[in-house]
Structure formats: C-alpha cells, structure tokens
Amino acid sequence: MTRLPEDSAEKRLVDPIAEDPSFHRTGSKVAVAGHPIHAMLVAFPVALCACTFGADLLYWYTGDLFWARAGLWAAGMGFLMGVLAGVAGTVELLWAPGIRARAASWTHFVIAVMLLSLLGANWGLRLMGFEAAVLPFGVLLSAFALGFTGFTGWHGGKLVFEYQIGVSSKGS
C-alpha cells in the first residue's frame, strides 16, 4: 500500500476559490463615506413591508378606509425603495469579486428578486382599487411578502456576519 505524504493530501483539499486573492475582496464598492448604500437602503422596504401587513390587518379589523389607503402607500414605497436597494445590491454583487464568488450571495440575490416581484404584485393589485384589493389577496400577499422579507434578511445577515461581506476592514 502506497502512502501519500501529508502535504500532498492537504493540497488536494484546498478550495481553489478561497485561494484566489480576489475572494477576500468583499468590501463595499457602492458606498458613501465608507457606508454601504445597500445596507442603508434595505431597512426601508423591510419596514414598509411590515407596515403594509399591519395596515391590512387593521383594515380587516376596523373596516376604516384609511388603513386600506395606508397599505397602498406602504406597498408602493416598499416596492420602490426595494428596487433602489436592489440596484445597489446588484452593483455590489457584480463589481466585488469576493462577493460574486460566493454562492450565498447569489442565493440572497435570487430570493431578493422574488421578494421584489411579490412587493410589486402587491402594489399593482392595490393600484386597481385599494379597498377591494386588501381582502383576501392583499393581506395574503402582504403576509407572504413579510415571510420572504425575513428569509431574504436572514440570508443577507448571513453574508454580513458570517462572510464579512460589505464590512470595512478599517477601524479598531
């Protein structure tokens, strides 16, 4: 039985992507004064998605037309701010080699695009008649979008906290 030296066995187990120097270049390329724009914008669609669901539930509970109108505005602004955050995130994905090389980045991207389609559908449904759109389909789309928001956010958090994507290496 021929035994391989230990150093050659370790060489076979090296991840070729991780060995590429660009793999570790994960700093933000789209930033203002070192602050990533995607991270600054993403809080708005998250909050507005939750507001849309809350407005739907309050309309269902009270029947007050104000909540249906508030849901229309929250859904619209959530979608538009999501598109802005998505553009910033897409530029980051395509410009930073260390971000582009990770499968988790692409997973986050695909889920976020699916979420944007839900937010857009929710807003489009309300544009046809915001009061009639809330029950039952508006509240269902809002609940589904809120679940997708959590799923997308979890993947985004994984990129930041586990892979240090978009984190500045400067500081103490």
What's the layout of helices and strands?
Blueprint: H1 6-12, H2 16-19, E1 31-32, E2 35-36, H3 37-41, H4 43-62, H5 65-95, H6 97-100, H7 103-127, H8 130-161
Helix pairs in contact: 4-5, 4-8, 5-7, 5-8, 7-8
Please describe what this structure looks like:
This protein has 172 residues and is an all-alpha fold. It has one domain. The protein is 74% helix and 2% strand. Strand 1 (31-32) and strand 2 (35-36) form a beta hairpin. Helix 5 (65-95) runs antiparallel to helix 7 (103-127) and helix 7 (103-127) runs antiparallel to helix 8 (130-161).
For the structure shown, list the relevant keywords.
74% helix; mainly alpha; single chain; 2 strands; 8 helices; two-stranded antiparallel sheet; 172 residues
Backbone CA Rg = 21 Å
Low-confidence stretches: none
Strand order of the largest sheet: 1-2
Characterize the main sheet.
2 strands, antiparallel
Number of strands: 2
Number of domains: 1
> H/E element string?
HHEEHHHHHH
Q: What structural class do you assign from the helix and strand content?
A: mainly alpha
Level of helix content? over 70%
The total count of helices amounts to: 8
User: Which descriptor suits the 3D outline?
Assistant: elongated
Overall mean pLDDT stands at: 89
How far do the termini sit from each other? 53 Å
Beta content: under 5%
